[in-house]
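Schema walk-through. Below, the input block comes first and the output block second. Nothing else is stored per chain. Lengths vary across the set, and this one has 335 residues.
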Amino acid sequence: MALIEDGQVAYVHAYGLRNVDKAAPLTTDTVMYGASLTKLTFAYMVMQLVDEGRLELDAPIGRYLPKPLPAYANYADLANDPRWARITPRMLLDHTAGFPNFRWLNADEKLDIKFEPGSRYAYSGEGINLLQFVLETGLGLKVGEEMQRRVFDRFGMGRTSMTWRDDFAGDLADGYDAEGKVEAHDPRDSVKAAGSMDTTIADYARFVAGLIRGEGLSAKSRAEMLRPQIAIVSPHQFPTLLPGTEPANARIGLAAGLGPIVFTGPYGPAFYKGGHNDITDNHVVCATRQRRCVVLLSNSGVGARIFPPLVKALLGEVGEPWRWEYNPLLPPTAP
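--- output ---
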């Protein structure tokens, strides 16, 4: 875990084991799977492109593509749905484009648009990967190289990458599921903006400190990342597309930012981003005005069971909607 005070990394420490059978300890330089924390770093990079005038948040993505989106094989499923033409980079970053989280969650494993783009929030890795496709196909960028240059090199993140590096192997965390079953780290060989990043607690803390300071972005773009884009009314984050509403969301102004989730707590404006799968649980939460943050990386699928008390001990009561993000992983006593 890492603590950031007034925009500077104040404390970084590792606890526990990267491999239980070998009794190999986690260190602050242990490479761990970043999961969806990748999305926050990607959004930061995208906002740099906005600052440079290379991308407009509210321009239809078709403006940047040489051919209509369904003309590309990976998006041919959208051929009979003209709503794709209304999708913008803003909608892809704030998860309002209408996609499922991933197409393979559909019974037919085909990509579709579930609702009118821009009308509601539904978390979607598909949307983030589509924005990567737009940048690479339309702007001619290589997202992995842009992330390295604009984010990882800027903040001295020497053990962070969008794809596997052989030098990671010497200090690498395996993952553990809810039953404690070990699963070896997946050496990802292709860049995926939705979640291919490997990182360390020391590296990712440097990025979060830079973000909360506003380094590398105009004041306008940083503010845009962290302001409410659309209210979130769903009862839980996952599964996406749940019917129903949660009135408590409105009381804290729960909303999508451009990359993080934003809300208002006892410290005022705040934001957070999670990143998890069956063997990984990561979390970042920041009090924006105070420039105070906690960064947590866990090689356990149920790390969230200890996140609320850790954040409270380090930041105080920040008011984060833990149950909206993590239900049903949390114990009954969690907020």
